[in-house]
Design goal:
The protein has 248 residues and is α+β, with helices and mostly antiparallel strands. It is built from seven helices and nine strands, in the order βββββααααββββααα. The strands form two sheets. It has a five-stranded mixed barrel with strand order 1-2-3-5-4.
Length: 248
């Protein structure tokens, strides 16, 4: 049986001397694991279409529960990312998170759209990396079901509290801490809180249509990274590598 899909390559795994297994995020079929025969050969016709972070159209052949690539055509290769190690590593972080959040044969078009929009923002729109990273993290957490309550302080109802509890995903005023709470609270300025509300509620086509000064962007990025990794209860090797690039 043949299956035509459009998908983003999230991961490549060595299979044998000539073949590679690809993890692909598709719109209609969720995450798929497919075999790319002969991909490691020097003149493989699948080389560009099967790169990490390549968005391609694949014709797959299924045999005994395993998909194999029969044909592939590139739709978007994000060449600009491949010329910049920090952007490529950040894109790889997005891919690793997407792999964790997606499931086999369970469509998640919103997640695929988010990753593609963020890769486009990094490569084509040349958006600030800190902004794109923060947008991805908060929106990905929301898509995964960890939608934060950003309406106001959970204790007094103040619309503009100055703390965010990254474990509970709620806002609190600095003087309103619940005595029974042991969660980590991070400071959020008015501008950062406005940005968080915007990111969680805006149309997906306008994800980057907000502005913050560098100091506020850094604060936003710290909050969103901590929130995502806390909710998922894990770290990411690609994130560690990305951050290491700033200390070499």
């Amino acid at each position: 049986m043949y299956l035509n899909v459009q998908g983003l390559v999230l991961r490549r795994t060595e299979y044998n001397d000539h073949d590679v297994l690809l993890t692909i995020l598709t719109q209609r079929h969720g995450k798929l694991t497919v075999k790319a025969r002969g991909l490691k050969r020097k003149n493989s016709p699948l080389t560009s279409q099967c790169q990490l972070l390549s968005y391609s159209e694949f014709t797959l052949f299924e045999y005994r529960g395993m998909y194999t690539i029969n044909e592939a055509a590139s739709l978007e290769l994000f060449h600009e990312l491949r010329r910049d190690l920090t952007k490529l590593s950040l894109g790889s972080y997005f891919a690793q998170v997407a792999e964790v959040l997606s499931q086999e044969d369970l469509p998640n078009p919103e997640l695929l759209s988010l990753v593609l929009n963020c890769l486009f923002g990094l490569s084509k729109l040349r958006e600030d990396e800190t902004k794109v990273k923060a947008v991805f993290e908060l929106r990905a957490a929301s898509i995964a079901g960890y939608y934060p309550d950003l309406s106001g302080c959970q204790n007094c109802g103040n619309t503009w509290p100055d703390r965010f509890d990254i474990s509970a995903g709620v806002l609190e005023c600095s003087q309103c801490r619940n005595p029974g709470s042991d969660g980590i609270r991070m400071p959020v300025s008015v501008g950062v809180l406005e940005a968080m509300r915007y990111i969680t509620e805006c149309d997906s086509r306008k994800l980057f249509s907000f502005q913050l000064p560098k100091e506020a962007l850094d604060q936003l990025g710290g909050v969103t990274e901590s929130y995502l990794t806390t909710q998922l209860e894990r770290g990411f090797s690609t994130l560690d590598f990305y951050k290491s690039l700033f200390f070499t």
